[in-house]
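Weekend entry, working from home. Most of the wet-lab plans are on hold until the incubator is repaired, so I used the time to fold the two sequences that have been sitting in the queue since the last round of cloning. Logging both here for the record. First:
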Amino acid sequence: MRMDCCKLRHIFSVSFNQRQHDGEYRTLVQFAIHRYGAVGNPHTIDMRWKVDMRLNVSTNIDVTACETDGDNLLFLGFHGFSNDENEMIRIIDAIYDVPKQDVSSTDNSIASVQHPNYLSFRGTYERPYIGSYYWYPDGCSVGERRRECSAVGDAVVRLLDSPAYVRFRKVLIGFSQGGYLSYRMIAEHPDVFDMAILMSPSFKGETAEPSPATGRTRFALCYGSEDRTISLSDQQCARNKLAQTGNLTYFEYPGMAHGICNQEIHDLRAWLGLRYALREESCASETPHACP
């Protein structure tokens, strides 16, 4: 069986300190990188010091993709409350329509399928005993929520400041808490990200004040018409703030609650301009109004 040594799977542990200086939090980042090549042998680069928090990342990068397929998208995934990094990997794979394959199979027919490049992040807080993760405590203040998002955003931006990622267009994709986290990253780093997919994002505590500058970022905002986990007022706030950017495509899905549906996956595939996108009629709107 032919092995392509250019296709690598990485598991990153991104560790960072939060240190307070003159009333401001400053983030210091370091990495422990576990790299698995086609031969399956791990190689570890470990640069650590005493830390308060660790950000774990699962990523799949095909270094030949830009040259062979013209795919220069790099997805940065952030899951919702009480989940983990695998949630966003499943969603990203679904958008790319990656077929499932038995790991014991020797059939290489899947090799011709276009695979996504992604870094999928695990929440910084773990739920005791349950084992799932989240980005900020439920019910915390707006200031606390923004501070948690800032710490993660600063770490991610530092990670992306590497020659390995320069050629990629960066696409944030987040569900619920992860959607709000993605929005806050763009608000604080407006010139870093090209696109953002916000799936049923929480906007609790945000106000109707003008949205911060968001640079060149294009937004896809998705909600279900029956979503009551995110209040209608918070949904409207998200639509209004993102509409101010002039770069919003809004999707609404009749009958869907706080979740994800097949049509949403198909619409996002087309919105991203993937060449094999299904040409199905979408309920997309370029304005922050509900689709008919």
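Second, folded right after the first finished:
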Amino acid sequence: MLYLTTSEMMAELGRNLREARLADNLSQTTAAERSGISLKAVRNLEEGKNASTASLLALCKTLRRTDWIANLAPPELDDALFDRAPGTPRRKRASPRHGEDSQMGRPRPDREASRG
């Protein structure tokens, strides 16, 4: 599956959604109503066309296929992605925050006068 194009992956996802809906013996209209999305959104998803992430999540929830979403970002990887190696210093801000001097995060003198 890694060698599929984006369009091919969307088409495959659409086929899987359709199969899941039919396995639950739901019409597209019923699936849309239960998901709180439009019939067009269900059709677009099943046809592998563009649809919002919110529509995809809602339909997966209705079809009890939230495990598909969990596989996109497994919880056990979430923390590991943001861990730093021991001894690695925290990255410094590339630029000062709005209204701060570039040194030490102090308010800029021109901003102090306007705060009073």
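Plan for Monday: verify the second prediction. Helices lie at 6-23, 28-35, 39-46, 53-62, 66-72, 75-82, 109-115.
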